[in-house]
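Hi R.,

Here's the chain you asked about this morning:
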Amino acid sequence: MTTTDRRAPGTVDYFASDVHLAAERPRVSQLFLRFCDHVREDANRLFLLGDIFDLWVGAKQERVPYVLPILEKLRELIAEGIEVHYIAGNRDFNFDAALNPDASDHALPESMSVEAAGRRLYLTHGDLLCTGDLAYGRARTVLRSGPLRAVANNLPLSFATFVSTGYRRLSERETARKTRLEIAVNFGRVRSHLTAGHDVVVCGHVHRAARYQVDLPGGKRGEFITLGEWSRRGSFLEARDGELNLRRFA
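And the predicted structure, written out as tokens:
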């Protein structure tokens, strides 16, 4: 598609996370593709806040059959003039399909600050807001280290997927054993972003669509919005006509 084929700029911003696309979840893939078609009608920007893919082991994964239509659809949105921004999740931090504007090094950001609906938003996946899980924090540092990521990118796809899937299952079992305090969002961390000049903090990771009013010093208030996951229906945030609204998509 050439530049002259692009549609008129849209006015709506969309935010989604925790789609957890995987070969064994074809219904979710179809749901996400339909969501992208919905977005293309009036979107200005689409922000993907991590864990869009349930697992991403490296560039070789772009050839996997269930991945191909997803990347093709996202690139279609970009070709039509919609900005697509991808933030690292805890499952797909190795994503390297170069969708982000000017992402010449293919590295995903951990967070973004953007203006939407007349407010300044801090966007992040959400795992960095859950500071009580010290074991996860240590594992996160190791898994995202340069040497380990280089090794993962150079392994055969089948072997890298086997190892990563095994680790994911182990991680899920360990998470099930953890206390609520360990996996809870640290609202002190949320407040720190709000007092640093943001009006709203938006994240995924907790798999629950919700809105919270957060008291700040000086009698001020900020807002914390968490996005839901996609196992049954799509969950997204919409910035339209100066308002932020949580929506469902089926």
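Residues 10-249 form a domain with the Purple Acid Phosphatase; chain A, domain 2 fold (CATH 3.60.21.10).

Let me know if you need anything else.
M.
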